[in-house]
């Protein structure tokens, strides 16, 4: 797993916020820009995964030498931060309405974002890139939650809880699509090939709750449909819990 926040902090912040770097007016203009490098890195990771997004491969996709990239970005650690924050900037955070409407909109946006960039689940953002994407997301969620009039500490905790749950659920949903694309095998075919497990291995007496859930229709959905239902149910329960803490 990659971890954000591992690069040089000053250089990373300069690049995230596109602070100008003093350059001599002499010489050839650069062949590529930082924005083009980040866009190309996103494209490689979207198509082939984050592990495949090496500096050599990225340079080849841009038609430049690898050393050209290092004149724009120090290394992969800083580039991963730029990629993550660039992805977060794709979120549409212009929704109005009630605080719940806005949080639900954020969740839908996040599902779409992870579907577009499934590699996001492979990056730990415990130490996040401090860029425009992060701040816009945090500002949107806190502004929505301010409508509840929760104390500041609880609103902040609620924002963190929403991010933790929604990001995890959205990443899980994205994995189903990615697994089918990479393997060429549908989720239904994958389970069908393992039907022998239920016929010869599974012991209902040992796992009676699973057996009862099965008999009562608890598993009458595809895995992807079950994950989408879990996201919907979990988000509603989370927002209900937050609402229950709102001062009346």
Report Rg: 22 Å
Weakly predicted, low-confidence segments: none
Percent of residues in helices: 55-70%
CATH topology of the largest domain: Tetracycline Repressor, domain 2
Structural class: mainly alpha
Number of domains: 2
What is the end-to-end distance?
A: 44 Å
Give the strand order, joined by hyphens, for the main sheet.
1-2
CATH architectural label of the largest domain: Orthogonal Bundle
The topology string of helices and strands comes to: EHHHHHHEHHHHHH
Strand proportion, as a percent range, falls in under 5%
3D structure, described in words:
With 248 residues, this protein is mainly α. It has 2 domains: 86 residues, Orthogonal Bundle (Arc Repressor Mutant, subunit A); 153 residues, Tetracycline Repressor, domain 2 (Orthogonal Bundle). Helices cover 63% and strands 2% of the residues. A two-stranded parallel sheet has the order 1-2. α2 crosses α3, α2 crosses α5 and α5 packs parallel to α7. The two termini are 44 Å apart.
SSE diagram, text form:
Blueprint: E1 2-3, H1 9-16, H2 34-48, H3 55-62, H4 66-69, H5 76-88, H6 99-116, E2 123-124, H7 132-146, H8 152-183, H9 187-192, H10 195-201, H11 208-215, H12 223-244
Parallel strand pairs: 1-2
Helix pairs in contact: 1-5, 2-3, 2-5, 5-7, 6-7, 6-8, 7-8, 8-12
Summarize the structure.
The chain is an all-alpha fold.
Identify the notable features of this structure and list them briefly:
248 residues; mainly alpha; Arc Repressor Mutant, subunit A; Tetracycline Repressor, domain 2; 2 domains; 12 helices
């Amino acid at each position: 797993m990659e971890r954000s926040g591992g690069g040089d902090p000053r250089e990373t912040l300069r690049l995230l916020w596109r602070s100008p770097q003093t350059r001599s007016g002499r010489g050839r203009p650069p062949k590529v820009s930082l924005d083009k490098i980040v866009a190309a890195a996103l494209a490689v990771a979207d198509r082939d995964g984050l592990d495949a997004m090496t500096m050599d491969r990225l340079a080849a996709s841009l038609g430049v030498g690898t050393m050209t990239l290092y004149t724009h970005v120090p290394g992969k650690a800083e580039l991963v931060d730029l990629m993550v924050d660039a992805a977060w900037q794709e979120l549409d955070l212009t929704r109005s309405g009630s605080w719940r409407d806005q949080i639900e909109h954020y969740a839908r946006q996040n599902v779409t974002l992870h579907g577009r960039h499934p590699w996001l689940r492979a990056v730990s953002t415990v130490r996040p890139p401090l860029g425009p994407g992060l701040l816009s997301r945090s500002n949107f969620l806190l502004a929505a939650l301010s409508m509840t009039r929760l104390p500041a500490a609880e609103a902040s905790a609620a924002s963190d809880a929403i991010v933790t749950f929604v990001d995890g659920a959205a990443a899980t949903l994205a994995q189903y699509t990615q697994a089918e694309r990479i393997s060429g095998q549908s989720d239904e075919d994958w389970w069908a090939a393992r039907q022998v497990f239920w016929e010869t291995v599974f012991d209902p007496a040992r796992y009676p709750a699973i057996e009862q859930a099965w008999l009562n229709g608890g598993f009458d959905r595809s895995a992807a449909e079950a994950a989408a239902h879990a996201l919907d149910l979990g988000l509603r329960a989370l927002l209900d819990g937050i609402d229950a803490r709102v001062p009346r």
